[in-house]
Amino acid sequence: MTLTEGERQPQVPAFTPDTDPGDVIRWALAAYPGLTMPSAFNLNGVVLIDLAVRAGYAGEVVFVDTGYHFPETLATRDRLAARYPELSFVTLNAGASPDDGQTAPDLYAADPDACCAARKVGPLQRHLAAQQPPALLNARSRDQARTRADIPFVEEGARVKVNPLAHWTRERLEAYAREHELPVSPLYHDGFLSVGCWPCTRAVRPGEDARAGRWAGRGKTECGLWAGDGRL
Ligand code: SF4
Fold this sequence. Notes:
Elements: H1 21-31, E1 37-38, H2 43-54, E2 60-64, H3 71-83, E3 88-92, H4 107-110, H5 112-131, E4 136-137, E5 154-155, E6 161-162, H6 170-179
Parallel strand pairs: 1-2, 2-3, 4-6
Antiparallel strand pairs: 5-6
Helix pairs in contact: 2-6
Bound molecules: iron/sulfur cluster.
Iron/sulfur cluster (SF4) binds at residues 66, 68, 108, 112, 115-116, 119-120, 196-197, 199-200, 223.
Keywords: Cytoplasm, Iron, Iron-sulfur, Metal-binding, Oxidoreductase
GO cellular component, one term: cytoplasm
Pathway: Sulfur metabolism; hydrogen sulfide biosynthesis; sulfite from sulfate
């Protein structure tokens, strides 16, 4: 969000490890009317969608179809869209496929940063540039990976990111999903604790963190949406 002269960022409450994520969302909805929610429909994202609806969110859920998603991810999106008709599910790059010419064949192997930039970060950045939401609701949590251990409830930067689940553990997220019978991707139960594109995701092994299966062995941990020079 770009502030004009005289504008001030809303005061962030003193959220604590005991804060109800719903309170964070309700604060965000009041502080940043018109905010939006990107999602990849992982466990965190599914929980955030449910919590957000309960808190009164009725905006967009924006998903980027890279063309390399697992069918289970697309099916999870469709199940969520059916369950939450008050939300507007937006798929960018809808119908993309590996041979659509957007990137060279197998770019994901040769240069995954360039592939993510072209097929994932770029479409979302262009959508946000057009929509200019005042903030983003995001589902990352600290225990997903060491690189996310310091995520605050509210991040400033190129855009304000509100992270209501920053402090929730995987166990807490799983318990919430069970309690509310949320449509978590079946891949999750096969060890895909964080699911991205099929060429760049494997199941997590015992003792690994939830994102260890993303770009495993390639020295890459983030797609570029939340870290790096082009981050949101
Ligand atoms: S996760 Fe892999 S296939 Fe998907 S956009 Fe990034 S590099 Fe390409």
